[in-house]
Request: fold
Amino acid sequence: MDFFQFNKIAGAVLGTLLFVQVVILISDAVFHPHAAKQGYPLPAAQEGGAPAAKQAAAPEQSLDQLLAKADAKKGESDTAPCHLCHNFGKGEGVKIGPPLWGVVGRPKGSVPGFDYSPGMKSKGGNWTFADIFQFIKDPAAYVPGTKMTFTGEPDPVKRADIIAYLDTLSDNPVPLPKGK
Ligand code: HEC
Reply:
């Protein structure tokens, strides 16, 4: 075999390999998306759908259910931003906001020596779990013109934890709802 013959054969082999490569690339490009489209939508929809449905169900839990599962320890750390304005300890006084010892069950806007907003003064009633749950979600929506310039805690699970913790700040905590 002389040099030119070898070159021809090598060229033919390389040419064939190149052709095969191109065919593979094209068939990949043509058939792969099809395979993906046909094969995956169903399982993907099932896998993605189930947890999404579970998550969507979470906010629909009642406050009683949330409180039955609430974690006062987590609630204690979730009250970190509240300490800027509130005292939590027994006998502690007014800061930027009224002290929160014993707040669960006490009449709204009732700490002597704290100048509540007119909206809070006229709110009426005692601080039930449900009222605190609404108030700390969006203070300005619950008490228009409130002096509590806290944007609110949107997570219902965290709010339930916070309430469970606030409830421990008392000599006679109001019993939390029990799980069913
Ligand atoms: C920026 C300061 C600030 C922060 C942060 C803050 N508060 Fe307040 N809070 C206030 C003020 C001021 C009032 C009085 C509101 C009024 O008079 O309208 C208040 C009122 C309250 C009341 C009603 C108390 C009563 O005696 O009627 C509760 C309950 C309360 N805050 C809970 C919380 C919780 C829980 C947090 C944290 C999640 C928090 N606050 C964060 C300033 C704050």
The chain has two domains: 3-59, 62-168. The chain is about 55% helix and 0% strand. The radius of gyration is 33 Å. The CA atoms of residues 138 and 151 lie 6 Å apart.
